[in-house]
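Input record (one chain):
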Amino acid sequence: MVIYETNRSFFNYEIYKQYDENLNFAMHFHNSFELLYVCSGKISVTVDTKDYDVRKGEAILILPNRLHSYRTDEHSRTSLYIFSNNLIKSFYQETIDKNPINPVFVLSETQLIEELDKDSEDIYLLKSVFYRIAYLFSRNTGFSERSSKSLENYGKILDFISKNYTENITAIDVARELGYDHRYVTALIKKGLQTTFRALLNEYRISNAQYLLTTESKSISQIAHECGYESLCSFNRNFKEITGTTPMIFRNNAKKVKKHM
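The corresponding structure, as predicted from the sequence alone:
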């Protein structure tokens, strides 16, 4: 399963922080930068089709709309930061059509992590920290051009889904939007994401539903409708297939977690 995280596609200088022991997370996408710093141990990271080992004192910077996943085989303690493209806008524009040859680098200036952990709301300070990280990253890697007929199209496909997921869209609609034959789009999704367009659409809808269930007080039927499902039965079935639980149980468990935070 590939998850498109709508709740982590940031546009307004937002930052998400997460601290983990033995992080494991399935393949996912979002339209934001992601920085992972390894405090101890080792973690394996897959970005698009390449695997990297990131060790203590190292970091990996993942550019927006790249497939990525995390796997800990023995032990890892990590700090993860997902942040808006606007915080390093010029760097984002310079790298949007490029791939880093090696996204792993030694984060020698650990005070940058300390600054991120302070929860500062000073936009200029945050920009300076992230631009410094971008500098350290760029200094340790070269860049290659992204193929015009492969990975970047996933972002276009997901962007189309994000704008039209409430409608009954198909791979034919995406192909028409991108100017490709629908068989090419179908093959691209199957080869690169090991899934189908319909499954990808449902995964996006359910990912968005999970976010709404934890942030909105709307009824489950209303959320189902807002996420593109005409039938509550269909929504419940897809939700359980993808998450392993029901929308009601998911919402109740999320409430319990928030209560103890």
